[in-house]
Structure formats: C-alpha cells, structure tokens
Amino acid sequence: MILTSCVLGAIHNLLKTPHYAANVRIQIEREGAKIVESGTTSPTETGSADFLRTQYELLKSRAMAERVTSALYLYKDDSFFKPRDVSALGLITGYFSRMPTSSQASKVATAADILMNAVTIKPVPGSRLVDIRYLDPNPQRAQIIANGYADAYVASNLNRRFEANAYAKTFLDERIKQLQIRLQESEQVLIDFAEKEGMVEVNDKASIAENSLAAANTATGHLISERIKNEQLWRQVESTTAINLPQLLTNQVVDTLRGQRKALETEYQEKLENFKPSYPEMVQISNKIKEVDRQFTAEVKAIRNSLKAAYQSSLAQEVEMKGRIEELRAEVIDLQKKGIRYNILKREVETNRNLYNSLLQRLKEVDIAGGVGANNIFIVDRAVAPNFPSEPSLSRTLILAFGFGLIIGIGLSLLLEMLDDRVRAPEEVEEISGLPTLGIIPRDESDMELSVVLKDPRSHVAEAYRSFATALQFSTDTGLPRSIAVTSAGAGEGKSTTAVAIARHFAQMGLKVLLIDADLRRPSLHIKLNLDNSIGLSNYLTGSLMPPDLVQRTDHPNLAFMASGPLPPNAADLLSGPRIYSLISLGSDVFNLIVFDSPPVLGLADAQLLSSASAATVFVVGAGDNRKGALRAALRRMPMARVTLLGTLLTKFDSKSVGYAYGQGYDYKYGYHMNDDEADGSTQTPQLARY
C-alpha cells in the first residue's frame, strides 16, 4: 500500500504543471492616524484577534478576488483560464468548461474562482504582518497578481473609509433636516401654549398666585388667633351676670357708674337714719340709684354686644379668608399643571435644539475630516518574479504519499482484523473453549500427500503429531484412554488425518490399535489407507456382520481398520443404539486403543453420540477454518451429551500469519537433526530433536 501510494504520488507530481509562487508582505496597523480625531466615522479598532481575523477573511473574499480581476483585466487574458493541472478528472472537466462564456460577468466570476483557489493568506506569528502568496504557471503573472492583491486591498480599505464618511454625511444631512423641522414645530407649540394660558416665564421666582397663597395663609393664621381671642372674651360675658369680670372692671364708664352708685348708696344709707324711704329726698336718691343701675345694665349689655360683634366679625373674616385660600390653592394647582406641561414642551424644545446643534457640529467635523485620514494598511515588501517553481515538490509529495499509504495500510489492517473473527491462534481456542491445547499442528507447505508426510519422521507435521500423542498419554489420571473419538466443529479441519496419526503413533509404540471410520455420511479413511469400504461399521450396527469379519489389516501389524461400510439412511439412529457400546466393549478385550473418526458436530448428532460412547474426545480446530461463533456453538453442544473432552488440537497452524511471537517459536524444524556424518551420506541411528 505504501509503495503504491508513493508511485501514484510520484506520477501525480510529474503530471502537475510547475507553479511559481510570488509573495507580497503587508502590514495591518490597528487604526490609521486621525488629523481630526472627532471627525472619524469608522469604529475604533484595537488590533484584537477578531479584527485581524476579519482582515484575513476580507483578503480571501470573493469581492477582493473580483476587484483584482477587474483591476488587472484578467478576464481578458485567455491564457489565464487554461487548465493548470494534468489529471483525468481535470481533462474531462476542462473539456466541458475550457473557457468561460462570452459575457464579462461570467469571465470575472470564473477568474475570481481561480484567484481564490491560488491565493494563500499567511499571517506572520507574533506580528501584524501578513504574507499574500499567489501561485501561477507564469512567474511574471504571479508577481503582477500578488502585487495587485496588495494594491487592491489598500485601495479597498481606503474606499471603505471614504464610503463610510460619505454615508455618514448623507445620513447627518437627512437627520439635521428632520430635527430642524421638529425643533421649529416644538418651539411653535411652546409659544402657542404660553399664549393660550397667559403664562409669562419668570426665572427661578415664585408666581403671584403662589405669593398670594402664602400671604393668605399667614393672614389666616392671624385671623384665627384673633377669632379665638374674641370668642373667649364673648364666651366669658355671654352667660354670666357678674360685674367683676375683667372686661367690666377695665371699662371706664362701668367704673364711673359703679362709683356713682356707691356714693348714692352711701348717701341713702346715711339719710335713712333721719328720713323715711318715702321722704321725697329719699325717693329722689332712690330714683338716682335706679337710674345708675339702668345705665350700668345698659353699659354691660353694650360691652357684651361689642364682644359678640368682635367675635362674629373675626369669624366672618376667618371664613372669608379660608374661602380665598381655597381659591388661591386651586389657582396654584392649575398653574402648576400648566407649568408642568409648559416645562415638558420647553424641555422638548431644548432637546431638539441640542440634537440639532450636535448633529450640525458632527456634520461639519465629518465634512472637514472625511478626506484626511491616513490608511492603516502598508505594503512592506512587494512581490518579485520567482526564478524557480515552488510546486510541485517531489520530496514533499513522496513524504505525504508515504504517510497516506502508511495510514491507509494500518487502517485496512485494523479493519480486516476487526472484521475477521476466524480462530487462528491457540490462545483464542483456549479462551473460547476453556480447554487446554494438547497440540499444535503446523501447516504443511509441501506438495506431497499428507499420508506421505506423516510417514516421514523428520517432517514438521509428524513431529507435531508425536508431541500431541505424548500429551494424550498424560491427559487423564489413568493414562491413555481406551477409546478416543476425534471430532471437530466443521468438515475439512483435519480430524480424519488426526485419527490416522494417533492410531499409527500408538501402533508404532507396540499398542494394538483399532481405527474405526465412524463418519457414516462422508467417510474418507478408506481412501487415505487404500482399503476396501464395501463392509464396515454400518454392517455391525445393523447386525448383519460381526467384528471379526469387518476388521481389515493395514500396512502396520499392530494397526487394524474398520471402514464405515455402506452409507445408511439413518446414521444417527444406528449410532444411538446399544451396539456401539458393545463394539467398544468387545474391541477393548482385543485392542489397547480404539480411535473413532467421527463426523463434525455442527448440524449432526453423530459426533455427540460417538463422543458420549467413547471414553474421551479430542476436539480438532482448523486454524482459519472456523469463526468464533461457530466454534462456541459446537462446544456448547458437547456437554449436553456428557462428553469427556480431553482438550483441543489446533491444525493447519501458520505462525507467520499469527504474529512475530509465534514465528520465533515455530521457525525451528521439527523431527530429527542431521549431524555432519549424515550430511556426508553415512547412516546412523536418528535422534529425537529437543523441543
């Protein structure tokens, strides 16, 4: 994958048209200098990251590309629209869109697309410098366009400022006219209201009504005091006859009358001693006393009437003044309401006048400062015509292709590893089955028949099977089981070869072994041993023949073979009967070991029946032949038949496909060593290799 990616990258690199890079460096300041600071209409920029990113995006915008296209008349240059890269897709698309349509707008749009794809904006870290890089097949045109980009950006920035000032001036003109009309209207409303209500503005002074109300309140206080005083005097003399009241005692007339009466009373008493009351002089004195009493009573009554009149006069004045106060209070409240309305109208006039004056001042400042602002964009280094192409770079392309191929290769490997759930390693078998691995049979890479390979004691396969047979001898507490069933999850995993290898190994060790082909559906042992299959196990299970007539001799004297015989239509029914147990019982009397080559577990009940009848069972797993789910399903069926599983045997094991660790362990040859004498052709007793 890496090599393919590198080759494709090199071919792509050779097919690409050389491009020349022209670079122009500009400086973006925070804001331009202001001759009249208050006349600016653009927002003050602080040089923040947002401001700089905005400028970068403006440089990469379509509007900027179209501005450069129009400024340099690129839409009139036919060579500018030629394809820039050679590729199958580019040739196909270029054939249908080789030249833009004849309209100027479409040519400008197409040229702008080319510019946007070829220009790169690269800020210089830690500064306000920005590099504008442009790629083009023509070095002179690359220089012109790069410089044109910088000039267009500077001009665009100035145009934005002038446009902002022009817009501000137009806006201010319109607003000033509107405010002028509003100011005139508000002033007229204020004047009309003042004339209608008869209001005269006095600066920070109280109105006449307010002063009158204050004076009336003061006078009312005095009148109330006077009325209270007069009322008290009147109440004292209103309901009493005493003449010793202060009001009477202090009266001169009353005092004179009292003196006269007292003198007359004294005279009357003095003469009463000499004259009788009827005496004329006495009568005259008595009449004078009565006249004085009459005058006194009249004077007291006059005093009482004067006090009452004073009280009533004070009360009337108080009531009248209170009425006047209510009138003045209503007048003041009405005046205050009118004053509030007047002040509202007055403030509106002042507000409109202030706005009008402010906008008028702003308009004058904008008019003066509109054209004197300095630009904040500077061209630091102009582009020069490049002498060497910058793209394509073969080394960079190969590095990218190498990395891409490496990533794709690793990704595909991981994906295949995730999707492929086949069992290949002994650890996987042990994890799924929970059984020990009794042996690992390597994959035979030779072209010879497996039976021939097994007969060669120096072969990897034969040595692995000997190791497996040795493990069988220590698989139980009593040693090697008397009967062993060999089965697997599916067909073609090496169970028949394993059965033959077990039988041959123990026959060579001197044990009498009976090998039975118990696969009554697809028998194969008679083919491997080149023997007859006309009679066999099926004949015994049906009761037509007995074992001595069914056993065949093989090429080894200690190994006997019973073929499957004719294939019955009901294999599971035959194996479920008692005759399979009687066969094992009879065979155990003659043979030391009986090996059954049973059918696969999945889809059939034969393997469970044979394994249940046998003393032990070996489960064969072909590396790469079974998926984990199928293996789990097959192993779950065995305990239900009360099968004694000794362990598993992993066949067709390929150490290279599993990993480095297994490759280290299985790269050594199995079998016998050849010493130097054997290499020279001499024959000596072979020695078992240590493993």
TrEMBL record:
SUPFAM superfamilies: P-loop containing nucleoside triphosphate hydrolases
GO cellular component term of the entry, any: plasma membrane
NCBIfam families: eps_fam
The enzyme's E.C. designation: 2.7.10.2
Domain Tyrosine-protein kinase G-rich: 345-416
CDD domains in alphabetical order: BY-kinase
CobQ/CobB/MinD/ParA nucleotide binding domain: residues covered: 484-656
Coiled-coil features, chain-numbered ranges: 169-196
Signal sequence segment: none
Single Gene Ontology MF annotation: ATP binding
PANTHER family on file: FERRIC ENTEROBACTIN TRANSPORT PROTEIN FEPE, TYROSINE-PROTEIN KINASE
Positions of transmembrane segments: 398-416
InterPro entries: Bact_polysacc_biosynth/exp (IPR050445), CobQ/CobB/MinD/ParA_Nub-bd_dom (IPR002586), GNVR (IPR032807), P-loop_NTPase (IPR027417), Wzc-like_C (IPR005702)
Protein name from the UniProt record: Capsular exopolysaccharide family
Pfam families associated with the record: CbiA, GNVR
Alphabetic keyword roster: ATP-binding, Coiled coil, Membrane, Nucleotide-binding, Transferase, Transmembrane, Transmembrane helix
